[in-house]
Structure formats: structure tokens, C-alpha cells
Design brief:
Elements lengths: L3 H24 L2 H15 L2 H5 L3 H19 L3 H9 L2 H9 L6 H14 L3 H8 L17 H10 L4 H33 L20 H19 L13 H19 L1 H4 L12 E2 L10 H10 L2 H10 L7 H15 L2 H9 L1 H12 L9 H32 L11 H13 L3 H11 L6 H4 L8 H9 L1 H16 L3 H17 L5 H10 L12 H13 L6 H19 L10 E2 L1 H11 L2 H22 L3 E2 H26 L9 H14 L9 H16 L13 H5 L2 H15 L3 H12 L6 E3 L5 H20 L1 H11 L5 H15 L3 H19 L18 H14 L2 H12 L7 H13 L6 H17 L24 H8 L3 H16 L5 H14 L3 H13 L3 H11 L6 H18 L16 H8 L8 H13 L6 H16 L20 H6 L4 E3 L10 H5 L6 H7 L5 H8 L5 H6 L12 H9 L30 E4 L2 E4 L21 H10 L5 H11 L16
Parallel strand pairs: 1-2, 3-7, 4-5
Antiparallel strand pairs: 6-7
Helix pairs in contact: 1-2, 1-4, 2-4, 4-7, 5-8, 6-7, 7-10, 9-10, 10-12, 10-15, 12-16, 15-18, 16-19, 17-19, 18-19, 19-20, 19-21, 20-21, 20-24, 21-24, 24-26, 25-26, 26-28, 27-28, 27-30, 28-31, 30-31, 30-32, 31-33, 32-33, 32-35, 32-36, 35-36, 35-38, 36-39, 38-40, 40-41, 40-42, 40-43, 41-44, ...
Length: 1321
């Protein structure tokens, strides 16, 4: 009788089914009872049976049976597989599609279905896959469970049912994604052929006899190929068969897996039964259950880690940057959580193989250092995280064995484990990994056991005297200092405070921990705590300076971290419903006047850091870490407040103090070295500052938002004005301000995309660029001032930044491009027209180029190769307006400058720049309106708008004629260098590729009809086979003459139809058959040289062919005079900007143009350039001349105070001076030579400092283990510097200095690095 009592029994059975089955399995009777449980569950899911019962009982039966499904599936894959084979999914789908089924029952059925796909067999049955005999291939059913779910979602269902079904579909899609990754990886392995290096070069006859003569001939024929193969790396010899579709599939799968691991709670977890899927929620949980065990079960089933090993080791995929980046992101996401680390640790064999592959470095890997660094960083991060997790597990095992209560505190196992954890903190990556792992879930418990009171006074005394206690205190302090995990603070803060209050004298580290945890005392960690935390920040900010940073900083940092946790939504908050508690927290912040407090705090930090930064003083590592932690948390909260305030567009924030303080902090903190202790933290600060500034870029929403007055009054305009003013405020703001401006501006077009962008996305990007152009136009005078002031700088890094900013601004729109080009042309004209001594007024260019003009021309040369700069430059040259007439003189000046003769290095470099500028102006490939961006003009020769492309990309007739004449005058001069002549010839050859340039060149040749003859004459008279430029000029000259006479078949008539006749060529060359004619002389020289050097044979053949072509053309009839080719009117510059390519898809786009290496790195300057730009000057003389009341010497001799506020002791200051590098001082006073340094030696080991442009951090200056008291009677050992000092002074150094050295080096008589010494008592 399965009536009401049976239903009640079924409901009660759910709670005991898991322990009951475990007991039955222990007894060996599990299989006997599973069939009964399956039958009861399936019987309860029968809709016909439920309809025969009373109304209340039938609902209880269905719900109890669905809960039984979930309970059985939680008992393991084997139990779940048996239930699935019994047909439970079909029963559940029957209930889902039954008539008059309530939403609550459908939600319960979907939840039961969700539990059935937690194992491999369940999810594959849902997807419709039937395993064949081999267990490899799969095929789909006619109507799978997946299709039924889709039909259910497309039907008339409530929003709660659709949301639950969507999560279920995404969960099944996750398994399909992993399966796709596995199958694609297998396909790549099968199609990648690696040559057998052991048998390479051997001839396999397979039992056949081969003719020795033929074999010898074959060896000779293949000798060259073998030599080429041996010059290639093994990776280059791999026959790569994987197509780009496989690579793209792998990248997409890895990115999808990373997204699901990060946002699993919002994507695949079933919603809470009482949750309603609204757009916003205030309180309560939106999901139920933990989705991560199922995810890691899928990963194990489909061998995810093994696939990653194959991808990072296979030559087909190991060097692909997209795959490496996707793998790094996925593994980093796994290491963020305790469950992810446990998953990796449970597959230690595969992970060890993965680590070995990632950390290995071969000679071929070093060719691409960026990818090699990415792989090695990931491998090291895996090592540190897993080793820290292993150490925690070992400590917990020792604690569980009772080592503390049994008095085995300083056992070798415990000390080794604790020392291993402490040793990992010596590096920045290791310290961050240890701190992160200790802050996860309950991992900190293993250290608390060594510091908490046991209740027994003797045991506690012994515990506090132990070495383990000291290790635990140091690790706890590092965790509290470096971890921003507020959940860990909420869980363990009170216990730590209790430890600190019970025995504060046991270890100084406990007092430091108490400072960091002071704000947590009595805190509730909810919205009601925000006002109190803001008050703590205010109280600490009032006393904040570098001298009191170690006293006030810890409480302020902890308060800011908690505020960030309470007020800033996580990165994946956008995936689910919007939680209104974040809005309420921002309201609480504004009500507590938090913005004003944060601004004051940031101002004080910036002011305190700016003075020592200017003077190049290093900051101790603890202070630097604390400042970075404070700034990072404060910026996150400020960004959240500004985003909430400015998001609507109706409210404006016009307090410029925030912007000025952030600009100062950006300059100080972001001038850190590219490698060092705090590189990742400082990069994050730079990103956070940029994000805060970007929150001000909100378009106005007023009715008259497009008016100039409305744009000028927006926060966007205010922010841009502050940045420009900061750049020009002081020299210290040049680099930082330009970097900020470059980070804010959009990158140049075209954008890169993996697939075609939608019209809405394209319109959004274009509107953003137009808004930037409009706001920059408002501040055009300030921008012109910036360009004018910095364009002549000799600092290579500053020049690189200025070029980047000019390119970005010009790429936005036509108005900004014209503004940038006008500014560049104005400063070049001003420099050329500057009146120097002895300059003739009638001819402004008659003397060598100055160094300032050279730097300006170098800037214009680099920018002119970009289409957004070239297009407005041509527009200004063609312009007929009076305001632009002065730019016509610039072309005239450049032509004159190129032909001024001088042997000064500045002038020779300036001529190179002028020729390069002309080459860019005459290059038809540099254009905005190329129909196929990236294709050359020759590849577009069949396009109908070819002439329009030429009109848009070439100067006008008169200007092109002036350029051609100047180039011909330059190549015909006997006093110009062959280097510039070579560039000029290449430009002339490029002009001859089309009729328009050829006709202009022909007219210029007739105008100066002896230019080519003079060039040939000079080449013949000064022939030198050892001069590479000379030979290159000869080769290019012959190529030019050949191109003038003939049309290349590759070029075709669609590009050029005009040629020079033989008579015209002979006239231009003053042709003669005399033996002393220049061409004959060159042929004679080359003939003699070819006897000794076979490499000149190709040049000799070109000479002979050219002579024969000219001689053969004597009998040809003269062609008719060709008509002058005409070009259409060029498009307006606005139309050219509007018609250019917005984005490129796939391989057409160069991903390097958007990489940080391309945009953020600056090439190191050459030593010659540095020496050329350095000018000796007398600083005292200058200060007396321009700063009457300024004592330069006194200012430079000032020193900052120590952290306690007292002046630096003389002995310590002397040691600092002695520890400086032994280099010649950059600033010296009259009569004083270099400082003599003897005695003390610089610190070794980990006591170094890192400097970069004044920003320096000392790593571990206060090492407690190196500064401990010596516990030995043995005298301290001497360093090699001590012996050198003894030789210089003919005596031993003083005892006091010896002790100071020992303290600095940490080389006392104790144990090894980080040890406690041999006499630890």
C-alpha cells in the first residue's frame, strides 16, 4: 500500500539516504538495495500514480521523488548512473510537459534534472549522445533532452522556469565546450608531424640497392637543402597541419571555460526557489548550491589539464600568443579559489608536467621573450601557490597529530615547513602567493594554532619561546599586511586581536598586527559600519605623512580595504541581477562626506611622496607597500562613487582637487621600474587612476549638449583641461602627463576584431572619437602649447610619447588632425626662420641645420609616415586660404635645406629627415581611403577608383614638381653623401610607378637634363667596391634607368603606360660611345671586380643589360609626345576620414599595434644621441642669474628625515653614501672631486634598492632575521671589500664599522639565510 504513510516514509528517507548507503556499501549490501530505491523514486515520478492520490498527498509525492533524485545523484557517479539508466530523465521531462503543472513543480523538476547531469553519463544522455562500443564517437538522438529543454524555453513558461532552464542549458553547454576542446586538441596532435631528429640525414633503402653514383648526385643536389634545414630550429621544421579554425576553436573554448569558472554562480547555478529574476535585488541569495564540484568533475572527465599540457608542449600551438594568454587566464582563475587549488593539487602528476613545460627555457624560446616570460610567470605562480597549499596541509596534519599539546613544537618537520613558507616570501611573487593562499577559507587556522592560548600556562610559555611561534607571527603579519581578503578578516580578526592582547610582549610582530586590526574591533561588516570606517580614515588622514606612516597607515589601510569590500561590487557583478546594496553603500559614503576625506588623503599622500621622489630618495619596502595598498583601495572606492554619481549624465562633479592629486600620484607611483618588487602593484595603480579619469568622460545629456558652451562646462572638458595644465605645470609632469593623455585617448583606427562588428558597435566607437575630437578642439590652444614646448626636446622617451599622442589625436577626426599638423608646421617654420648670426635675410636657408631644427624634423619625419598626419599635411599644401599660405614656404624651405652642403652631423641627419618626409608625401600607399587596407597600390591596380587614390595621396602638380626638382638636384650634386642620395633615388623610383608621377619626373628631368649624367660621372670617378652605400646607389641608379625605359610586366598598363624613348634617354645621359664614358667606365670597373668578388656579378649583369637597352633603342622611332595625365579633384579631408576602414577582422589586423609593448614601451636611446644632447652648464651660475634668493647647494644637501621624525644620524648617513654606486657624480662643486669611498661595502643578498627615475623601493630593509643579535663568540667574517679596504689603509677596519657592515649584510655568526642561528636555545 503506497499511500500517505509511504509518501511520508519517502520524505524521511531523503535525510538518511547518504549515510545509509555508505553503511550498506561498507557491509557489501549496497547493490541489493539500490534497485529498490530506484524503483521507489521512479514510482514517485509517475504522473498517473500521483493523480490517483488526494491533492495534498500527490504534490508531496512528486516533490519527495524529485528530492530523492537529487539525494541519489549526490551519492556518487555510480549510483547516479544507475538511476539515469533506469530512465529518470524521461520521467522528469514528462512532468515538465504535463498539463496544468505548477511553476513550483517545474522548478523542482528542473532542479532534479540539474542533479542528474552532474555525472558524465547524465549530461551525455541529456545531450543525446550514445556511446558506441569503442566509447569514442557520439551521435545525437532524434529528440534529445537538450532539444526538449529548448522547446520548453520557447514555449509559454513563466520567467522563473525559463531562468532555471537557461542555467541548465548552460551547464550542459559547458560539458560540450570541454568536449570540443578535447576533440580539437586530439585532432591537432594527430595532424602535427614532428621530424625524427635521430634518423635525420640517413638514407633508408628498405632493402633496395641504390646506384652509388646516383646516390652521390642525389646527395649533392640535397646538400643545400640539408644545410638550410640544419640552420632552422626543430620548431621551425615542424609541418604545421592545424588550420586557423582549430586555433580559433581552442581559444574560444578556453575563454568560455575561464568565464564560466569566474561567473559560475551567476551562469550555471540553479536560482533560489524564493528568488524572482528581476533586474535588481536588494537582499537574499539568488542562487542555491555550489556549482564548482560539477565543473571540476567535468574537467576531470574530459581531461582538461592533459589538454593544456598538450597545447603548451605541441609545436603547433605552444608559440601561439592567443592560446598562451587564454591558458594563463584560465589557470589564474583556478588559483584564485581554494576549490580550484585543491583541484590542481589533486592532479599533481599532470600539473607537475605542466609546470616543467612552462618553466623550461630553450635557446629557441629566448627569441620571443614576451611569450617565454608569460609561460614562465604562470609556471612560477603555480609552483608558489601549490607549494603554499602543501605547506598548509602539512602544518594542519602536524597539528591534528597533537604536536602542540605533546610538546613537539620545534620538530624538524614543523620547522622545515614553516621555513619553506617564509622563504617563499623573499620574492614579490612568492609573497603574494603565500599571502593569497593563507587568506583563503580556513587556511589561516594552521598558523593560529601556534599563537593562540591553549589554556595551560606551561604549554603557552613554551609555545611563545618556540621558533614556530616566531615564524607564525611573521607569516600572520605578512598576511594581514598584504591580503585584501576581508572575509578572512571577518572570520579571524577577533581571534587575532585576542592573541595580541593576551601576550603583546611575546613578539613585536603582535603589536604590529594589532595596529592593522584596530579598525576591526567591534565591527559588524555591513552597511552600518561605513560611517565609522570613514571617520577612522579621516582621523588617520589628519595625521598622515611619511614620518608617521608606520603609525597611522595600518589602520587607514585596513579601513579602506573594508570600505572597498562593502562598497565596490565585484568584477562579475554584471552577470546576475543588480544588487541595490551597492547603491545604498555609495549613498552612505556620500552622506559621510567620504569624497572630501579621500581627496584630502590623496593630496597628502601625493605631497608627501613628491618631495623625496624629486630627490631620488628610496622608500622602505613596507612604506611603499602600504602606500600602494592605501591608494589602490581608495581609488576603487572613488571610482565607484564617481561612476554612480556621473553615470546618469545629469550630475557633474567639478572638484578639480581630485584630478590634481591623482595626477601627482600617477607621476610618482607609476615611475616605478619595469621590473622590481612592486611592479604589478604600481601597474594596477596606474590602471586605476586611468579608470577614475575615464569616469569623467560622460557625454552631456542636456538639450543643447552640442553647443560649444555646453561642451566647455562638462566634466569631460574639465578633466582634459587639468591634464593639459598639469603637463605644462613643471618638467616633472611631462612624462606622466603625456602618458596619462595617451592612455585616455582612443587607439588609432582600424580596430582589430575576431568577427565583424555590428553597426551599433561601429557607431558607438565613432561617436566616442568624435566627442574626443570636439573636446580637444576646445583646448586647441593648450594642445598647441604642449606640442610647441615639447617638440624640440632631446629626451628620446619624451619624443616617443609626444609622437604617440600626436598620432592618436590626429587619428580622431579631421579638425584635430589639422590642428596637430598646423602646430608641427608652425614650430618647424619658426625654427627655420629664426635669425642666426650671419644669416642672409634674402635666403632663409643657406647654412647648416641646427640641432633644434633636426629634432623637429625627426618628429615630423616619423609622424608623416602615418596617414592621419599625411592627409592634413597635403590638405594644407593644397589649401588656398590666406591663413595657410605660409605653409607653402615650408616645402620651399625643405627643398633648399636638402641641397645645402655641409659635413656637420646635424645637417646630414636633417637631410635624411627631409628625404624621408618627401618619400612619405610621395608614397601612394600612405592614405586614409585605401579600399583594402594593408594592400599595396599595385595590388589595387584594377580598382576603378585608382586615380582618386592617387589624387588623395599625392601632392599637387606644382608641389610634386618642386620635390622632383629638389631630389634631382640632390642626386646630381658632387658634395652630397651617398646615404641621402640613395634615399632620394628610391623616392624617384617610387614616383615612376604611375603615369602621374612619371610625367612629372620626366618634366623635371628635362628641366635639369644633366642630373643623371652628373650622377653617373660621379659614380664612375669615385668607384669604390668596399663602400656599401656607393654600390647601393649604383644599383638603384641602374634600376631607375631601366624603369624609365621599360614597363614591368608585374606593373602592367593599368598602373603606368608612359616610358622614355631611347633618344630621350640618350639625351638625358649625354650618351657617347667613347670608352671613357661613365657607364662604360663603370662596366669596366665592375668587370675587374667580379674577378675577385662574385657577389658583384648581378650588378655587372644589370650594367650590361642597361647598356644594351640604350644601344638597341637607337634605331627605334621617336614616340609621339604623351598627353599630360590628370587626376581628379582630391576628396575633402573630412570625407577621407569618414570613408576609411573602421575595423579589420582576423589576420588582416596586426595585434602588436594594440599590445602594451607597442604603445607603452620606449626604445632605449643610443649613447651617441645622449652625448650629443648633453650640454655642460654651471648650475650655481644659473641659479645666481635667474634665482637670486635660491641657494642651490643648500637645497641639494638637505635630507629627508627618518620615519621617526628625527634627522638621519651621521653614521647612518655616511653608510648610505658609502653604499652608493661608485660612479662619477653628475653634480659636483668647484674644486671638489669624486667622493672617496672606503671601508664599508654595499649590502649583498636581498638588501638591494631598485631605482627608476627617482622612484625607488627598498626590498626587505628591516629583516628581523638579519638584524638579530649574534649568538656566537665567533668574530664576524670579512668580505672581500674588507680586505681591499685593509690594503688601502694598511690596517684592519675599525670594530664599529665592522659591526655595522655585519648588520648591513646580515652576515653574522648565525645560521643561513633567514635562519635563527645555531644557538636558538
Amino acid at each position: 500500500d503506497r499511500g500517505p504513510r509511504w509518501v511520508q516514509t519517502l520524505e524521511e528517507l531523503q535525510e538518511v539516504i547518504t549515510p545509509g548507503l555508505a553503511h550498506l556499501q561498507y557491509l557489501g549490501q549496497q547493490k541489493d538495495h539500490l534497485s529498490s530505491l530506484y524503483e521507489w523514486t521512479l514510482h514517485g515520478l509517475e504522473i498517473d500514480t500521483a493523480l490517483t492520490l488526494p491533492i495534498a498527498i500527490n504534490l508531496r509525492l512528486l516533490k519527495a521523488a524529485m528530492r530523492m533524485v537529487a539525494a541519489l545523484c549526490e551519492c556518487g557517479p555510480e549510483v547516479a548512473a544507475g538511476l539515469i539508466r533506469a530512465g529518470v530523465q524521461d520521467k522528469l521531462f514528462t512532468l515538465l510537459f504535463a498539463e496544468h503543472m505548477s511553476s513550483s513543480l517545474k522548478l523542482a523538476a528542473i532542479k532534479a534534472l540539474d542533479s542528474t547531469i552532474s555525472c558524465q553519463e547524465g549530461v551525455e544522455r541529456l545531450l543525446g549522445w550514445q556511446q558506441e562500443d569503442e566509447g569514442r564517437e557520439a551521435e545525437r538522438k532524434t529528440s534529445s533532452g537538450y532539444q526538449q529543454l529548448i522547446n520548453l524555453m520557447l514555449g509559454d513558461q513563466t520567467v522563473r522556469v525559463v531562468t532555471a532552464a537557461t542555467a541548465l542549458v548552460r551547464k550542459a553547454s559547458l560539458y560540450e565546450t570541454i568536449t570540443t576542446l578535447q576533440s580539437t586538441t586530439d585532432h591537432i596532435v594527430e595532424t602535427t608531424q614532428i621530424p625524427d631528429l635521430e634518423t635525420e640525414g640517413k638514407v633508408e633503402t628498405s632493402g633496395k640497392t641504390e646506384d652509388p653514383d646516383k646516390a652521390g648526385v642525389k646527395d649533392e643536389e640535397e646538400e643545400e637543402d640539408v644545410a638550410m634545414d640544419t640552420a632552422m630550429s626543430p620548431l621551425e621544421q615542424v609541418q604545421y597541419s592545424a588550420n586557423m579554425q582549430d586555433i580559433e576553436t581552442i581559444i574560444n573554448c578556453l575563454e568560455e571555460l575561464c568565464t564560466i569558472v569566474r561567473d559560475a554562480v551567476h551562469i550555471i547555478a540553479q536560482p533560489h526557489p524564493k528568488a524572482f529574476p528581476t533586474s535588481a535585488v536588494l537582499t537574499g541569495h539568488t542562487t542555491v548550491g555550489d556549482p564548482y564540484p560539477v565543473i571540476y568533475h567535468y574537467f576531470t572527465t574530459r581531461r582538461l589539464l592533459e589538454c593544456l599540457v598538450v597545447l603548451v608542449s605541441s609545436p603547433s600551438t605552444a608559440a601561439h600568443p592567443g592560446i598562451l594568454t587564454a591558458i594563463r587566464d584560465l589557470m589564474t582563475q583556478l588559483m584564485l579559489t581554494q576549490k580550484g587549488l585543491l583541484y590542481l593539487a589533486s592532479h599533481y602528476e599532470t600539473v607537475n608536467v605542466l609546470i616543467r613545460i612552462l618553466t623550461q627555457s630553450t635557446e629557441y624560446d629566448r627569441e620571443d621573450s614576451s611569450m617565454d616570460t608569460t609561460a614562465q610567470d604562470l609556471g612560477l605562480k603555480l609552483i608558489y601557490h601549490l607549494q603554499a597549499l602543501q605547506a598548509i596541509d602539512q602544518l594542519q596534519e602536524c597539528i591534528n597529530k597533537g604536536c602542540i599539546t605533546q610538546g613537539e613544537l620545534d620538530s624538524a618537520e614543523l620547522l622545515s615547513t614553516l621555513h619553506t613558507m617564509f622563504s617563499m616570501t623573499f620574492t614579490s611573487l612568492g609573497r603574494a602567493s603565500v599571502v593569497h593562499v593563507l587568506g583563503l577559507e580556513t587556511n589561516l587556522t594552521c598558523l593560529l594554532a601556534f599563537v593562540e592560548s591553549t589554556g595551560d600556562e606551561d604549554t603557552d610559555n613554551n609555545l611563545r619561546k618556540s621558533v614556530c611561534f616566531k615564524y607564525a607571527c611573521v607569516l600572520l603579519l605578512l598576511t594581514v599586511q598584504g591580503s585584501d581578503n576581508v572575509d578572512m578578516l571577518e572570520k579571524y580578526a577577533q581571534r587575532l586581536l585576542t592573541v595580541c592582547e593576551q601576550a603583546p610582549e611575546a613578539n613585536p610582530k603582535l603589536s604590529d598586527i594589532k595596529k592593522w586590526l584596530q579598525p576591526v574591533k567591534g565591527l559588524t561588516f555591513d552597511l552600518s559600519s561605513i560611517c565609522g570606517l570613514v571617520e577612522l580614515v579621516k582621523a588617520g588622514s589628519d595625521e598622515l605623512d611619511l614620518n608617521r606612516l608606520n603609525t597611522v597607515g595600518p589602520s587607514v589601510t585596513t579601513s579602506l580595504r573594508i570600505l572597498k569590500h562593502l562598497c565596490c561590487p565585484p568584477a562579475n557583478a554584471h552577470c546576475g541581477q543588480k544588487d541595490l546594496k551597492w547603491n545604498l553603500s555609495v549613498i552612505q559614503l556620500f552622506s559621510a562626506n567620504a569624497m572630501e576625506i579621500f581627496i584630502i588623503m590623496l593630496q597628502k599622500l601625493g605631497t608627501a611622496l613628491l618631495h623625496p621622489w624629486r630627490r631620488g630618495h628610496p622608500h622602505p619596502g613596507t612604506q611603499a607597500a602600504m602606500v600602494v595598498a592605501m591608494v589602490t583601495s581608495a581609488l576603487a572606492v572613488v571610482k565607484t562613487m564617481l561612476a554612480e554619481l556621473l553615470g546618469s549624465g545629469t550630475v557633474q562633479f567639478r572638484d578639480v582637487r581630485l584630478l590634481t592629486s591623482l595626477l601627482t600620484l600617477h607621476t610618482v607611483l607609476c615611475s616605478a621600474p619595469s621590473t622590481g618588487t612592486f611592479i604589478q602593484e604600481t601597474q594596477r595603480v596606474q590602471t586605476d587612476v586611468i579608470d577614475v579619469f575615464l569616469t569623467f568622460t560622460q557625454p552631456p545629456v542636456t538639450q543643447k549638449s552640442d553647443s560649444e558652451e555646453a561642451l566647455a562646462n562638462t566634466t569631460w572638458s574639465m578633466m582634459l583641461k587639468e591634464v593639459l595644465q598639469y603637463i605644462m605645470s613643471a618638467p616633472e609632469g611631462f612624462l606622466g602627463g603625456l602618458t596619462m593623455l595617451s592612455e585616455l585617448l582612443p587607439l588609432p583606427l582600424p580596430m582589430g576584431a575576431r568577427e565583424s562588428l555590428s553597426p551599433d558597435d561601429v557607431m558607438l566607437a565613432l561617436n566616442n572619437r568624435k566627442l574626443w575630437s570636439a573636446y580637444l578642439h576646445l583646448h586647441s590652444s593648450d594642445l598647441q602649447q604642449v606640442i610647441k614646448a615639447l617638440a624640440g626636446s632631446g629626451c628620446s622617451q619624451l619624443q616617443q610619447l609626444l609622437k604617440r599622442v600626436c598620432w592618436q589625436m590626429a587619428d580622431l577626426a579631421a579638425p584635430t588632425s589639422l590642428m596637430v599638423v598646423r602646430s608641427l608646421f608652425d614650430i618647424v617654420l619658426e625654427s627655420i626662420n629664426s635669425n642666426e648670426k650671419g644669416r642672409e635675410e634674402s635666403r632663409p636657408v643657406d647654412k647648416p641645420c641646427s640641432a633644434n631644427t633636426l629634432r623637429l624634423l625627426e618628429l615630423v619625419e616619423d609622424l608623416m609616415s602615418q596617414a592621419p598626419i599625411k592627409a592634413p599635411a597635403l590638405h594644407l599644401l593644397r589649401s588656398g586660404s590666406k591663413c595657410d599660405e605660409k605653409y607653402l614656404d615650408l616645402l620651399y624651405y625643405l627643398c633648399l635645406l636638402m641641397n645645402v652642403v655641409s659635413d656637420q652631423q646635424n645637417h646630414l641627419q636633417a637631410q635624411d629627415c627631409v628625404v624621408s618626409i618627401f618619400q612619405s608625401l610621395c608614397d601612394p600607399d600612405i592614405t586614409l581611403t585605401s579600399p583594402e587596407s594593408g594592400a599595396s597600390l599595385l595590388e589595387q591596380k584594377m580598382k576603378a577608383n585608382q586615380t582618386l587614390q592617387l589624387a588623395n595621396s599625392l601632392p599637387g602638380k606644382e608641389h610634386l614638381m618642386s620635390i622632383c626638382t629638389a631630389l634631382l638636384d640632390h642626386v646630381s650634386s658632387e658634395e652630397q653623401t651617398f646615404g641621402t642620395i640613395l634615399q632620394a633615388l628610391r623616392t624617384i623610383v617610387m614616383l615612376s610607378e604611375h603615369d602621374y608621377g612619371f610625367y612629372t619626373l620626366k618634366c623635371a628631368l628635362k628641366k635639369s637634363n644633366d642630373s643623371l649624367y652628373k650622377l653617373l660621372k660621379r659614380l664612375a670617378s669615385t668607384f669604390n667596391k668596399d663602400n656599401a652605400d656607393h654600390l647601393a646607389v649604383i644599383s638603384t641608379t641602374f634600376e631607375l634607368l631601366r624603369v624609365l625605359l621599360t614597363i614591368d610586366e608585374e606593373m602592367g598598363a593599368a598602373v603606368r603606360t608612359l616610358v622614355l624613348s631611347g633618344g630621350e634617354m640618350r639625351e638625358l645621359l649625354n650618351w657617347s660611345a667613347e670608352p671613357d664614358y661613365p657607364l662604360h667606365s663603370l662596366e669596366k670597373h665592375l668587370t675587374e671586380c667580379c674577378k675577385e668578388d662574385e657577389s658583384l656579378e648581378s650588378l655587372m649583369e644589370a650594367t650590361v643589360n642597361l647598356r644594351q637597352s640604350i644601344q638597341a633603342s637607337e634605331e627605334q622611332e621617336l614616340p609621339k609626345e604623351a598627353e599630360e595625365p590628370t587626376l581628379p579633384t582630391p576628396e575633402q579631408i573630412t570625407d577621407q576620414f569618414n570613408s576609411r576602414a573602421i575595423y579589420l577582422v582576423g589576420d588582416e589586423y596586426d595585434e602588436r599595434s594594440v599590445s602594451p609593448t607597442f604603445w607603452l614601451s620606449s626604445p632605449p636611446p643610443e649613447d651617441a644621441d645622449i652625448e650629443a644632447d648633453m650640454v655642460k652648464c654651471d648650475l650655481i651660475d644659473m641659479s645666481q642669474k635667474f634665482l637670486n634668493d635660491f641657494d642651490l647647494k643648500a637645497e641639494l644637501e638637505k635630507d629627508i628625515t627618518t620615519s621617526t621624525g628625527a634627522p638621519t644620524p651621521p653614521a647612518k648617513a655616511a653608510r648610505k653614501r658609502l653604499n652608493k654606486p661608485r660612479v662619477e657624480p653628475m653634480v659636483s662643486w668647484g674644486g671638489r672631486g669624486p667622493v672617496q669611498r672606503h671601508g664599508n661595502a654595499p649590502m649583498r643578498g636581498k638588501g638591494y634598492s631598485i631605482y627608476s627615475r627617482g622612484m625607488a623601493f627598498q626590498s626587505r630593509p628591516n629583516d628581523v632575521f638579519r638584524q638579530r643579535k649574534q649568538n656566537t663568540s665567533r668574530p664576524p667574517s670579512m668580505h672581500v671589500d674588507d680586505f681591499l679596504a685593509m690594503e688601502d689603509h694598511t690596517g684592519p677596519p675599525a670594530k664599529r664599522n665592522r659591526q655595522n657592515e655585519s648588520s648591513d649584510r646580515g652576515g653574522g655568526g648565525g645560521g643561513g639565510r633567514g635562519g635563527f642561528g645555531r644557538g636558538r636555545g
